[in-house]
Design brief:
- By secondary structure, the protein is α/β, with parallel strands linked by helices.
- It is built from ten helices and 25 strands.
- The relative contact order is 0.13.
- The model has no long low-confidence stretch (mean pLDDT 96).
Length: 403
């Protein structure tokens, strides 16, 4: 079996890559290989509205007919374990060899694992795939008390979804400030109070020591590193992601994310990578983000460069949004550190914009809550590279476009 383009991974990046190839008129053969036995689907929805509904169907991007009509060969339930670059082949776990003209790695990330006593108990879950989400949804139908280990965006989105289903939710977080590394302490407090207002219990600055189980090896509670016993019927662990190491033989060190240039080239001839498995250049540094819109944009951008080599550098501003209850938060840019924070609006009222700026007051990232500003205005300010005047920024009667 041979294809002009082989894409390993039916992820968001992988799907939008093959979709864009056909939309832009690419006529070569395309093979899309996915280890799950499911059509490419929207992982973003799994922790949100999908979790609240009774419908168990995967939130697929397109029906199978789309792939047939666009002559995209889908190889589902097929896991690639080796890349033989000299032979231009990938090899599956069953030993099947698939030749490629150009190869794209779009395998996403994997869940960071937590080592616990009784970690194999029934009722303990991670959320990375549709199969994970389906198991969580089914188990959740018969339980009332859930503990979420980790207060990242996925964990807090799940807290919101479970509270909408009137489940009792306890969040155990090692940090004293949920999301603080991304949004800062003041905005972290807003997220904390918002969830507490909706009935979520938080144990901050706390880890999990062990899991309690019954005779059927079903989880009955957790014990924190401070000795607290928290009864529960379900535990979901969300402590971040690590590189996907399912490909064991290749030119790459899959214990690290794959470095690519602005054209998604890996440095190995005819091998590219996109999405959550990559580190890519942005603002003169190599960054790694795991956001849905980046994966989509990265995949679509690579399609252009596969059609016409090195034609379109990838310079899309990172963006993500997150929904909690009836509130929406949007974030543009990338800032793991900043000199100071500038505020526009009132955090306590939930209508605010926060700029994370450097020593020159140039924004590195901007978070805007509940429609306090328009994305287009924020993006223009971010891409202008201009310094922010704190007084003008704080004046909510003036548009960001005036800056």
């Amino acid at each position: 079996m041979k294809f002009d383009i082989v894409v390993v991974g039916g992820s968001t990046a992988g799907f939008y890559l093959v979709k864009e190839l056909r939309a832009k008129g690419y006529t070569g053969t395309i093979g899309l290989i996915e280890k799950e036995n499911a059509l490419p689907y929207n992982r973003y929805k799994l922790s949100k509205t999908w979790m609240q509904k009774d419908d168990a169907a995967a939130p697929i991007f397109k029906e199978a007919s789309f792939f047939a009509e666009n002559e995209i060969t889908l190889l589902l339930n097929t896991e690639v374990t080796s890349i033989l670059k000299d032979q231009k082949k990938v090899v599956t776990v069953s030993g099947k060899e698939i030749e490629y003209g150009k190869l794209v790695i779009a395998i996403g990330a994997a869940s960071r694992q937590l080592t616990l006593e009784h970690e194999d108990a029934f009722g303990i879950f991670y959320l990375r795939s549709y199969e994970d989400a389906l198991k969580i949804k089914e188990w959740g139908k018969k339980v009332k008390n859930v503990v979420l280990i980790g207060a990242g965006f996925i964990g807090l989105e799940l807290a919101s979804s479970f509270r909408e289903r009137e489940m009792n939710v306890t969040v155990v977080e090692y940090s004293d400030h949920p999301l603080g590394r991304v949004v800062g302490e003041e905005v972290s407090q807003y997220f904390l109070k918002m969830h507490q207002k909706h009935g979520v219990t938080f144990l901050l600055g706390t880890g999990v020591k062990s899991v309690d189980v019954n005779e059927a090896n079903e989880v009955t509670g957790i014990v924190t590193d401070k000795g607290e016993n928290i009864p529960c019927d379900m535990v979901i662990i969300g402590i971040g992601a690590v590189p996907n190491m399912s490909i064991t033989e290749s030119p790459f060190d899959f214990s690290k994310n794959i470095s690519v240039n602005e054209f998604s080239e890996t440095g190995e001839k005819d091998i590219y990578a996109v999405g959550d498995c990559t580190i890519w250049p942005f603002n003169k540094e190599m960054i790694h983000v795991e956001h849905w819109e980046h994966a989509q944009s990265h995949g679509k951008n690579l399609a252009l460069n596969l059609i016409k080599e090195r034609s379109t550098p990838y310079n899309t501003l990172p963006y993500f949004w997150t929904d909690h209850y009836d509130e929406t938060f949007e974030y543009l840019g990338h800032a793991l550190k900043w000199e100071k924070i500038l505020l526009r609006g009132t955090i306590a009222k939930g209508k605010f914009t926060v700029a994370y700026v450097d020593e020159q007051n140039v924004p590195q990232a901007i978070l805007f809550a509940n429609g306090n500003d328009e994305r287009d205005d924020v993006e223009k300010l971010m891409t202008s590279g201009k310094k922010i005047d704190p007084e003008i920024f704080a004046d909510t009667t003036r548009s960001l476009s005036e800056m």
